[in-house]
Amino acid sequence: MNEKLIIGIDLGTTNSLVGVVDSGFPIILADSDGERLTPSVVTYRGNGLIATGREAVRLQQLEPERTVSSVKRFIGRPYDHLSTEEIESSDYTVQPGPSGGIRIAFDEDHSVSPVEVSSEILDHLKRVAEAALGHEVSRAVVTVPAYFSNSQRETTKAAAEAVGLTVERILNEPTAAALAYGLDKLDDEQTVAVYDLGGGTFDLSILQMKEGLFEVISTAGDTQLGGDDLDLAIATAIQERLGIDNLSTSESSRLRAAAREAKEALSSANTHTIRLPFFRDTESFELELSQHEVEALMQPVVDRTRSICQRAFAEAENKGASSITHLILVGGSTRIPLVRRCIEEWFEITPNLSQHPDEAVALGAAIQAGILCGRVREVLLVDVTPLSLGIETFGGLMNVIIPRNSTIPAKAGELFTNAVANQESMAIRVLQGEREMARDNWLLGEIDVPFTPGQKGSARVGVQFAIDQNGILEVLSRNTATGEDHVLEIRNSAIDVDDTSVERMVSESIDHAFDDMNERIWTEAHMKSEELLPAVDSALELVGDKLPDDEIDSIREAAARVKTLLESDVRDAIALKQANHALDEATQTLAALLVEAAFE
Ligand code: ADP
Ligand code: MG
């Protein structure tokens, strides 16, 4: 058992899914048939066995009264809150239960509670996850509609706990969807509308990002509006066209299944043939439906979502929400082209379709679960550079170009020059790490940039680092005199550093901070001294006679101090830096004289 792992569950009215973050990415787990969607259906068979998911859907036509679907509508609600329509809409019997609750009864002495049915579905998902992962799981994040009451949330949690899943968090479905769309990584100024049209319910939620977290600011919906209503409208039309009356329970269930199949097929095809072999006794039926016909049947149902949206929009506006920046579609029924067209037309906003509408909620649950168990850190790390990137410069120093924790994509550059005269090329050594000295960092790659030999400082080499969204670092070095480019591509290593190495590098840089800093100052001061001393000597030779003796003495004194420190065994970086500074000060007049002489 992996005690730390947390799975994410979308416990839907019609379909349920389970996901997890694996190697930094959220994925939906498939069952042994390769299916990722599990119908939220449970059959309590006459023989005492219990079937869940697709098997229960197959049994629905044989044992409609013993097959429980859409149980989510009943969870955590008191019996006397149910409308007659809700009580009568199912093929199974809904009865009052103990302490005001609900019972689903199959016969005189066999009934179950909505929690028990939900537990069966959750247990099924748990087993799907365990089979896919190869070990037991015991913790989960479970999503619920934003409008769910406290009691509905608590009951959902109890259903999971009954099958050995500790619920680490109950997450709102629209929030989960927004997470899946990655909307939490954009800026703070956003208002997201989530249009969720599933099998039995419709919800429109408006979320606003506040301090990096989504808050549901308004929600409106209809718990009796969804794909099932579309199926019913289509089934009724088929029945009329076939001219058959008085459908039995199993006939009407078969017809609805055929209608649903047609509806789903017509989301991506223009026509579909419905076949109902031996529908009634020996009579078989066949008829063709077009997308156009079906759209006309669905239009009134789709239209009902419009005023609900307007209600949520108005409420959000009242609460001072800024205008909608993203509209996302969730739920299997949003695959219907008509639904997409209507939304665009009504609200003049193009929906973001980058995610699977039926999987977005489960993916979001998996992401939340991954965050809670620390598995998403890798994903988040992809968004920032875990360590600084730079190149080695004069004296073996690390010159940082893209600092640690920069968000990617990132681009930065600097201009470098030759440190010594007549150098023919410059080695660009690409480094990663937090240490001051190049040798203590990691070498990622190296390129040699050739240039025409010249005086010190005559060459100009521009170095640009660019990290793209995939973490690929491209180092471009350009000889600005010739325009010649050299490109070095470093895959992954710039971003893909395991956590322990990053921690080690950072802690070493802290441990060595004092020594490192001292060494950097020493190296820089050393280079400065080596530049200053010969320059002072040659200036004295050229224009020294124009200076008073005492000034020459003080210059020589300052230069001697620098020399002593340079040659000393104790590398006193600060003292050398101060000595350089003093020598600089002492040679002010000398430098001015040198400039004057140059102009004469
Ligand atoms: P829920 O959130 O209620 O569990 P889902 O998001 O899984 O529901 O949506 C299920 C509904 O989506 C069903 O009514 C199903 O018929 C419908 N659906 C799934 N795929 C399609 C499709 N391609 N075209 C039209 N409807 C679809
Ligand atoms: Mg759903």
Kindly describe this structure.
The protein is built from 16 helices and 26 strands. With 600 residues, the protein is an alpha+beta fold. The strands form seven sheets. Strands 1, 2, 3, 4, 11 and 12 form a six-stranded mixed β-sheet that branches. Strands 15-14-13-18 form a four-stranded mixed β-sheet. Mean pLDDT is 88; it is low at 377-382. Helix 8 (291-318) packs parallel to helix 9 (337-347). The chain binds adenosine-5'-diphosphate (ADP) and magnesium ion. Magnesium ion binds next to loops.
Question: What is the total tally of β strands?
Answer: 26
Low-confidence stretches: 377-382
Helix content: 25-40%
**CATH architecture title of the largest domain:** 2-Layer Sandwich
| Oligomeric organization of the protein chains | single chain
Cα end-to-end separation: 87 Å
Overall geometry: elongated
Bound molecules: adenosine-5'-diphosphate, magnesium ion
What's the CATH class of the largest domain, please?
Answer: Alpha Beta
Number of domains: 4
CATH H level, superfamily name of the largest domain:
ATPase, nucleotide binding domain
Number of helices: 16
As for the CATH topology of the largest domain, it is Nucleotidyltransferase, domain 5
Rg, Cα atoms, Å: 36 Å
Summarize the structure.
By secondary structure, the protein is α+β, with helices and mostly antiparallel strands. The chain is built from 16 helices and 26 strands.
Write the layout of secondary structure elements.
Blueprint: E1 7-11, E2 15-22, E3 25-28, E4 38-39, E5 41-44, E6 50-52, H1 54-60, E7 67-69, H2 84-88, E8 93-96, E9 102-107, E10 110-112, H3 114-133, E11 139-144, H4 150-161, E12 166-172, H5 173-180, E13 191-197, E14 202-210, E15 213-222, H6 227-242, H7 249-265, E16 271-280, E17 283-290, H8 291-318, E18 326-330, H9 337-347, H10 360-372, H11 377-382, E19 389-393, E20 397-402, E21 410-416, E22 425-432, E23 442-450, E24 461-467, E25 473-479, E26 484-490, H12 499-511, H13 513-543, H14 549-567, H15 573-586, H16 588-599
Parallel strand pairs: 1-11, 11-12, 13-18
Antiparallel strand pairs: 1-2, 2-3, 2-4, 5-6, 5-7, 8-9, 9-10, 13-14, 14-15, 16-17, 19-20, 19-22, 21-24, 22-23, 24-25, 25-26
Helix pairs in contact: 3-4, 5-10, 6-7, 6-8, 8-9, 13-14, 13-15, 13-16, 14-15
